[in-house]
Amino acid sequence: MEYGFATKARAVALRDFGPAMAPMNAFLTLTGIETLPLRMERHVANARKVAEFQDGHPRVAWVSYAGLANSPYRALAEKYLPAGAGSVFTFRVKGGFEAGARVVEAVRLFSHLANVGDTRSLILHPASTTHRQLSDEQRVAAGAGPDVIRLSVGLGNRRRPHPRSGHGSGGGVTVLCVKCRTGLRSRPKQQFKVVATWAGSSPHVAILIDEVRRSLRFRRSP
Asked: What's the start-to-end Cα distance of the chain, in Å?
């Protein structure tokens, strides 16, 4: 009887309701929730800048982000998501399956991971990863076509500009990215040439857009 109850509890209740959190895990989750509104403001602001850049790129067929002015869901986003349309969205590159896979191979700042909502910036090619078991028709119906890429834009930021950055000169700037959690841990003082900046926006956003620009050249990783 006890064995049967234990099996039932594990096979059914645990599957349907999930396990109870450990005390320390619950404490960390509650602590993180306290600053969630502040983090989401950065997530949304960064994602909006990246989506706007992609929306006008010649190698991008479309961008599915409700925060864009030309999105068919803009009115709904303003009604139900007044603080912003989130930081996870998809876009389609021109060139089919191989082009989509090469974009993911080319990035250096984004992490190639399937989860979303991380503080890091994440990228995924669903057709070759999470949705690869589906048929071509099923992937298209699910919004994960062969050339669709999903981004989850993080909230990283630089700590200070490089002393010789030329910040405010109107052109590109070089920043010292020492706070990023993606790909720079072994080289925290790696310098990046930023190709676009916006007044009052995070320099990390410009780095993300530079990363997207490089990836859209479809260069394979060495």
From this structure: 60
Of the candidates 169, 219, 196, 218, the residue with the CA atom closest to the CA atom of residue 53: 196
Domain that holds residue 70: 37-215
| 2-29 pLDDT per residue, tens | 778 878 877 777 777 777 788 899 999 9
Q: 3-state SS of 97-117? A: HHHHHHHHHHCCCCEECCCCC
3 state DSSP class of 126: helix
Which CATH number covers residue 107?
A: 3.90.1150.10
| Helix boundaries (H) for the chain | 2-8, 14-17, 23-34, 36-55, 74-80, 96-106, 136-141, 203-215
Instruction: Identify any residues that bridge with 9 across adjacent strands, giving them in sequence order.
Output: none
Q: Count the domains in the chain.
A: 1
| pTM check: above 0.70 | no
Q: Which amino acid is at 65?
A: Y
